[in-house]
Amino acid sequence: xxxxxxxxxxxxxxxxxxxxxxxxxxxxxxxxxxxxxxxxxxxxxxxxxxxxxxxxxxxxxxxxxxxxxxxxxxxxxxxxxxxxxxxxxxxxxxxxxxxxxxxxxxxxxxxxxxxxxxxxxxxxxxxxxxxxxxxxxxxxxxxxxxxxxxxxxxxxxxxxxxxxxxxxxxxxxxxxxxxxxxxxxxxxxxxxxxxxxxxxxxxxxxxxxxxxxxxxxxxxxxxxxxxxxxxxxxxxxxxxxxxxxxxxxxxxxxxxxxxxxxxxxxxxxxxxxxxxxxxxxxxxxxxxxxxxxxxxxxxxxxxxxxxxxxxxxxxxxxxxxxxxxxxxxxxxxxxxxxxxxxxxxxxxxxxxxxxxxxxxxxxxxxxxxxxxxxxxxxxxxxxxxxxxxxxxxxxxxxxxxxxxxxxxxxxxxxxxxxxxxxxxxxxxxxxxxxxxxxxxxxxxxxxxxxxxxxxxxxxxxxxxxxxxxxxxxxxxxxxxxxxxxxxxxxxxxxxxxxxxxxxxxxxxxxxxxxxxxxxxxxxxxxxxxxxxxxxxxxxxxxxxxxxxxxxxxxxxxxxxxxxxxxxxxxxxxxxxxxxxxxxxxxxxxxxxxxxxxxxxxxxxxxxxxxxxxxxxxxxxxxxxxxxxxxxxxxxxxxxxxxxxxxxxxxxxxxxxxxxxxxxxxxxxxxxxxxxxxxxxxxxxxxxxxxxxxxxxxxxxxxxxxxxxxxxxxxxxxxxxxxxxxxxxxxxxxxxxxxxxxxxxxxxxxxxxxxxxxxxxxxxxxxxxxxxxxxxxxxxxxxxxxxxxxxxxxxxxxxxxxxxxxxxxxxxxxxxxxxxxxxxxxxxxxxxxxxxxxxxxxxxxxxxxxxxxxxxxxxxxxxxxxxxxxxxxxxxxxxxxxxxxxxxxxxxxxxxxxxxxxxxxxxxxxxxxxxxxxxxxxxxxxxxxxxxxxxxxxxxxxxxxxxxxxxxxxxxxxxxxxxxxxxxxxxxxxxxxxxxxxxxxxxxxxxxxxxxxxxxxxxxxxxxxxxxxxxxxxxxxxxxxxxxxxxxxxxxxxxxxxxxxxxxxxxxxxxxxxxxxxxxxxxxxxxxxxxxxxxxxxxxxxxxxxxxxxxxxxxxxxxxxxxxxxxxxxxxxxxxxxxxxxxxxxxxxxxxxxxxxxxxxxxxxxxxxxxxxxxxxxxxxxxxxxxxxxxxxxxxxxxxxxxxxxxxxxxxxxxxxxxxxxxxxxxxxxxxxxxxxxx
Length: 1222
Hints:
One of its GO terms (molecular function) is ATPase-coupled monoatomic cation transmembrane transporter activity. The protein is about 45% helix and about 20% strand. It contains 43 helices and 43 strands. It is globular and about 120 Å long.
């Protein structure tokens, strides 16, 4: 009980949440462990090294965290990993980085920080006298410090820790730090560097060699050497050295690449502000949170995360997002409601410069600097977090790998039986103790295959190479297998399903509070000087870089349609008439009659409020040159813009007009305008919050953009749906536009219904509620049928949810969210964090989730999904595990195909390696019965010539060209796979025992001696006999049983390799894998040749004896029968009976199966067969294993689901709790 009370949680609520327990050294436990280590020859120390929990508990006693010397950390995710860390101590003048130092100040700075130490000896001594001892520990490049108040360790990440508002950053942190305070904070935050230490080769070698696999190899080599199996031991050592060297080279190369990538821009010279005017040059490694830096006019690579205090920056953030379109960053709000909000890096990312991103250029006041205050440094930065995720990746949680360990444990159990059998048999035969120990341990080394890890990795490596050939790059190879199990893929819309660029279809302006007829062009002379076109020409975030317009593709398209030009004047030009440097836009010259009119048409952009995904709008403040008053222009989602306009300025037909466009799949953007008060000065505008600007607007009209679906989209989605992979859309666009695109591309079929879940949060005394609205079905409307009539018996419906409703439902209707997720196909107006949340919800109902996006707003979802695919031109993006250089979704089926092929390859290789071990185990167990064994060169031939060649070539089958509905199994511990392995084991056992028994029944059989003459070779030619030996065979290797079992087992390895090396429907047929075919053909020919036509040199080398020709023919018959039985059992029992008729629950889980063969005799036979065998195997009423299938079955029985049209569900309504039990 005491231990559970002392368990604390750190990083609570975050992704890396951990339990922490305190321990202190215990002398008597350490003495016991020391004695145990000596007695076990060091094996106990290895065990404690592999199991940190045992290592700590075996040498320490539990204590409070404050008194702890060692800490035991355990992650709270599904992996529950253990980590051991040591507590360190340091001296500091204060306990927290943002504390005021309790020393009498000599000077007071404008931001109320004190200069505590101005090169004064007295102050230095005073500081030294007041130093306190602080405990901390390091884990995954983060420092955690002890906090006496909360009695726990906490992580200091940066300025956000003090929970400051935007206004507080201006008032308290805008003047910079003194050198003393900077040094003090550096004690806690360390140097500002993302230090990727490249480990020495010796350190990497020790870590690699201490891997349990290599320790087992070492144990095996020592054992084989004791048995005089020197050649085989040498071969294994050689293979292990090559494996270790390759592994070390790969690991070190990855470290060096990461180090070079990080180090290239990690240390730069920066201008640091000290007080109001003082600027000094310093190294970026000296920066700490709270420092104020100046961004040079020609830009820089950011060495830290910093928030802009004044000025504007154009930034390339491709390193973080994979999106190469430059982003405009503006200064943090300093007044109004926005300034009163607490600074949050995600919420205020449009004002934040992230570490590693490239500032291309800056815009600023004349004579003033572009300043930013440092928020985070080192590994706490966004770039640092990405590097940490690469340095310390989470284990791949895939059932295959967990089952592999269980299967190995089963093999160890089999080895245990052989171990006991060998000991008993040896004692009965009065074998020496040394021989008993060696031979019984030898059984264990035979049962666990030494080349298993390398063989299983080969399939993934081959798949990775094939993916690279089709333009898909992978930074997490282990996830390739997971792609083979994808059951659902989320797609972003714009740039993923549809074309990146939008084409301007037309505009619909408002005049006299009503819409005028649609106009297809805006560059006409009659429209050029209208407020509508002026809004299009100014309300954007474009900039010019090397003479080319750069910015959002939508902005570029809109601005190009106006025909206006953009200029960014130099500082010298603007200094003559105004202290601000505006961006100026001008209309085409041919539309301007004279110079005076030209000047009034020129518009200067005074201030920008960038587009925000959360707000779904952007705005600018402008001034027409020559005019005294300023104007505000607003652009954004029509619903949002209309809500910010004066009600009378919005046409009454607004909703109907908007719906008519969005139903057709157009993307619609609304514009608004407002004239500002004449008393507003240029500088005053810079301090206003956007809420004060974006209100009481005049509605100007709509811009209608055509977003064409990519040519490949519909075909790919159809292919995925045929393969029973569910597809859904997650977009930031309008709901009706998203539904229209979903229908056009085939996500929602023409005859299927769409139900919009429109949720409203609680207000006043009204609880939260959901209104269920049924969309008109275009297909049924075209046929003239009643749109209100919904046939739910067909089970043909989809839910559509927008971002606001999603937030309300997750908060107030948590019992409905899983039911909605099961049948929702369209998620519109979703913020980036909501996309991530949706992926987690889908994973919570056991979907294996893929996410495909452009990498810009999808980073969180791409990383959270089991398989994230970023469509980016970059070869490898840290935004997701997979990056496709082909900018359409055709990469998704390719990835699924290769994933399925790699997964099946992993199963094939694992089954083959398991059978190889068991076949060799059976041979050795049988030979132990006559106190014999396989010879050194026989082991060598089997392991090197047969097993290695086959294991690495059977992985070369390419993926099948089509995606099928059937999914590959995800578990080794499944009925069909276990049946496959067990039937082959029994087959091999039967035929080896048969050969072993029959050879002893032959008339010529006798206990073999060097003088034995079973081949009827004359005494005169005996000197040339292959049985000739110069010394007595102490190990009894040469005998008739050994020779017979060697031949039979060698062919068994080849038979199971071909049986397990399956092709269709997930891989190409094995006959197309020519390296495997050549290897099998060559080995079959060689073995048949040496068996039927013995060669003396080969027989002597392999330590096999001469047997009569009749027995060789008998062996051929046994081998042929073995192969036929193996093939028949695998095809008949596993492929037909089990896969096709019994274990069918994985098929057709995401929707109704459309099949034209439902009434065929074959289908009828399958149905009757399935019914009979399901009852036989007691699987008739077995519930599905995954949650989403259980939910689907339960919802079929639910009469109230889906809700009827126009039904309103309230948060307190019992109806909303229908699925509480689900």
